[in-house]
Design a protein that fits this description.
- This protein is of the alpha+beta class.
- The chain is built from four helices and ten strands, in the order ββαβββαββαβββα.
- The strands form two sheets. The chain has a five-stranded mixed sheet with strand order 2-1-5-4-3.
- A hairpin with a 2-residue loop joins β4 and β5.
- The longest helix has 13 residues.
- The protein is elongated and about 75 Å long.
Length: 184
């Protein structure tokens, strides 16, 4: 967990100017070393909205960043300023372990997307579902669609943090589960 304080704030001068998001440690840092990075610029552009991403050079971690604002009294008027960016890094293996625990079928796939439908985590083989398809999925219930040459049941679940969890289960796997249940 890191708060990168915007360089226009005086306190930024007294904070470490060499900390990167992927460096170990947590605390307050100057944004000087990260303000030109794509994730930082995109977070600032989103103006307080969460931005979920994976850095290409650090694929083992899922990241979330959010611009932090503060109110200050200036000439008798309350003004809002962007203090900097709060950035969190999560080990993706933790996400993977949780998803694997819930895996019911042999060929089922799970992916986690940002609010725009861009994949930020996918079990093996699930990365082939594009953002446009994810956005087009119904928010309630499941739909049957062709996925990689197989008829599948695909369901999108909206999570509290605006991320989307998409599950893809081949109908053949569901039918096999049903046959086993009937046999029992």
């Amino acid at each position: 967990n890191k708060l990168f304080v915007a360089t226009e704030f005086t306190v930024s001068r007294y904070l470490s100017k060499h900390q990167k998001l992927s460096d170990s440690g947590c605390g307050l840092y100057s944004a000087q070393s990260v303000e030109n990075e794509a994730w930082y610029r995109e977070t600032v552009r989103r103006d307080g909205e969460e931005y979920w991403f994976v850095q290409p050079d650090d694929p083992g971690y899922l990241c979330m960043a959010r611009a932090i604002t503060c109110n200050m009294l200036e000439n008798g008027q309350l003004k809002q300023y962007q203090l900097g960016v709060l950035a969190l890094r999560f080990d993706i293996s933790w996400v993977s372990d949780r998803i694997q625990i819930s895996k019911m079928t042999k060929d089922g796939k799970v992916l986690l997307t940002d609010p725009d439908g861009a994949v930020i985590y996918a079990t093996s083989g699930a990365e082939y579902l594009d953002a446009e398809t994810v956005r087009a999925l119904p928010e309630e219930g499941a739909s049957e669609q062709s996925y990689m040459g197989r008829t599948c049941r695909i369901q999108k679940t909206m999570l509290d943090n605006r991320l989307m969890l998409v599950t893809i289960v081949p109908l053949a796997d569901l039918q096999a589960l049903t046959v086993n249940a009937l046999r029992i």
